[in-house]
């Protein structure tokens, strides 16, 4: 179904900049429309967005037929105007045919092409009675969301901002940086309202959640304060000398969170809920035919976690969702799935990280730090910690297999051996003997098993 919108020059350029953040080579964009419809205006905004600080003048290639540009990522961009093309065979002389194989090509007057390139995206621009407006029609996957993102940024007063993609996660959420403005969150999943509720709660208690600069809850868009690039994972990799200071700050953050009453708007993550989440493991992990696993985890949770009242858990709490800001409070990201859980939950999340190794001595030191600060009974806390660690590992292993098999994202399989090691270490706790016995026949995620999950993965 075609996406159509009436656009000002500002929205047209914002749409081009938004698309520039999404495309990677090879990609061909066909810009269709009559003289004066805004094709070159669109192409100019696209090219300058890709080039950033290196932006050049972008003249119309009406007479040269083709202009080429380079961006800082090493991508070559071809801007072609085929209005004066007399014979499609001239494309070979221009080199445009070969460029489509490895560059980003913006082609005005695409009707002059002999054959439309496979996978090409078409954007049609048509003038309107009001000379300041044009009709833009797009017919390719994601066009509706692209248009909505651009319209949101314009409505927020930042239609002239450059747009840069930020690394996403395993969810449907996408993030873009608007330099000097903030970070755009595009979340079609419906979790914007919980994110806002937690943001207000966290900021109200002095924690480092980002300020909300603009919002469209119905469509799933937020413009957030930019907390910077110093993710704790990167800082720990670059500055290992800061490891103790950073881990102490993370643990102290959890201690401070757990001293507060749990907000009433978060759901409980109790024994049955923990058991239900383990179904991801039994449904997806090869050789995990364990229908009784959810009930077993629920029973163990009820036995080992009942003596400690639930605390607020940000849940997706790890080094890539924390931002180091020196003496300022740690920046917090991706907390929309917060729950009321056993206090060990986020401590496990930070110390048994699927994406990076944590020194076992650091893990034990931080558990001891938490116990000393909270006065929690050590034996009971460590048993609950081991159970939560095992349950999280099982769920994560199931999620990684599902991402590979169902969603075509095999890169997460590389993390499975580390998560499996977390699982085995947690299972050594004597209180988890029933779970250890139940899992005894499940194969480890060695290279052969991972190859069975996603053959020929990149």
UniProtKB/TrEMBL annotation:
InterPro entries assigned: Aminoglycoside_PTrfase (IPR002575), Kinase-like_dom_sf (IPR011009), P-loop_NTPase (IPR027417), T6A_TsaE (IPR003442)
Intracellular or extracellular location(s): Cytoplasm
Domain Aminoglycoside phosphotransferase residues, every copy: 163-375
BP term (GO), one: tRNA threonylcarbamoyladenosine modification
Keywords, alphabetical: ATP-binding, Cytoplasm, Magnesium, Metal-binding, Nucleotide-binding, Transferase, tRNA processing
CC per GO annotation: cytoplasm
GO molecular function: ATP binding; metal ion binding; transferase activity
Major location category of this protein: cytoplasm
SUPFAM superfamilies the UniProt entry points to: P-loop containing nucleoside triphosphate hydrolases (SSF52540), Protein kinase-like (PK-like) (SSF56112)
This protein's record includes keyword Hydrolase: no
Domain of life: Bacteria
Listed Gene3D superfamilies: 3.90.1200.10, P-loop containing nucleotide triphosphate hydrolases (3.40.50.300), Phosphorylase Kinase, domain 1 (3.30.200.20)
UniProt-listed Pfam families: APH (PF01636), TsaE (PF02367)
Family the UniProt entry places it in: Belongs to the TsaE family.
Protein's name in the database: tRNA threonylcarbamoyladenosine biosynthesis protein TsaE
Species of provenance: Paracoccus hibiscisoli
Gene from which the chain derives: tsaE
